[in-house]
Amino acid sequence: xxxxxxxxxHPINHTKSPLIHGLFAEVSQQDLEYGAIxxxxxxxxxxxxxFRDAGGRGMNITAPFKLRAFELADARSERAxxxxxxxxxxxxxxxxxxxxxxxxxxxxxxEHNLQVPLAGRKVLxxxxxxxxxxxxxxxxxxxxxxxxxxxxxxxxxRTLAAEVTDPRVQVCAxxxxxGQDFDLVINATSASLVGELPPIGPEVFDxxxxxxxxxYGKGLTPFLRLARESGVAQLADGVGMLVEQAAEAxxxxxxxxxxxxxxxxxxxxxxx
Length: 272
Ligand code: NDP
What we know:
Shape: globular
Helix content: 25-40%
CATH topology of the largest domain: Rossmann fold
Number of helices: 10
Number of domains: 2
Bound molecules: NADPH dihydro-nicotinamide-adenine-dinucleotide phosphate
């Protein structure tokens, strides 16, 4: 019987996940169906369990349900636990397993696709929401020299830093970023979704070799535009992260690692 998977979110009409997983299934010759479910703000949990009870094998979870997916699971990975969010569920042995592949997908895009290893680098992460939380453990495992988290709500950044208790992690207010050198600047805020720039000046890019925008498909966002004007050599948006996190979920469910390059190429919207 064909195995069934789905993404669930609200709204779900712009999701790329069925396309990505459909391409993965095709190239890796896996017999599966992958759909999209419009999640209900009242009925999300019932929809997930209903999908599982009807024979579903796994789901991707997108906004605004990542926290609720994490909470409904029977077992959670360490990454999902720090993120307090799950973007992938697996239904197996009568249990719901929660994972979070957003951070590892981002790391893989940076290190493998963009060829910028994090080891020894000085990293600035803007934002302390779900995406920043998901990135923290995979980033630290990659061995940066230090990692600074800046967020408007500084208490939120401090809480996150306190949860990892790693001396390499520092918290900094936006207006105190000047005078520090960063090799990588990662925009993990949602500012770009509304066309805004997080409150940074061009000086954060003075030594940067990569500016990475987690939002995708939006062309040159205010963050990427400032990075370009500041002379950063490499700019990227989150399309590679999106495809890499999908590949992680696919491998978790199917035991097969799909090739990601052709899918990234197909989904990439030029930055200009
Ligand atoms: P959350 O809502 O969890 O967090 C939002 C963060 O953005 C908070 O730190 C918030 O700061 C900050 N923020 C919002 N607006 C502004 C602003 N105008 N200026 C400065 N900071 C701002 O969102 P997520 O962490 O889930 O998502 C963050 C981004 O990552 C989004 O663009 C999302 O699309 C992208 N993303 C991309 C993925 C991919 O696969 N490429 C996967 C997941 C997310 P404060 O706490 O101070 O309010």
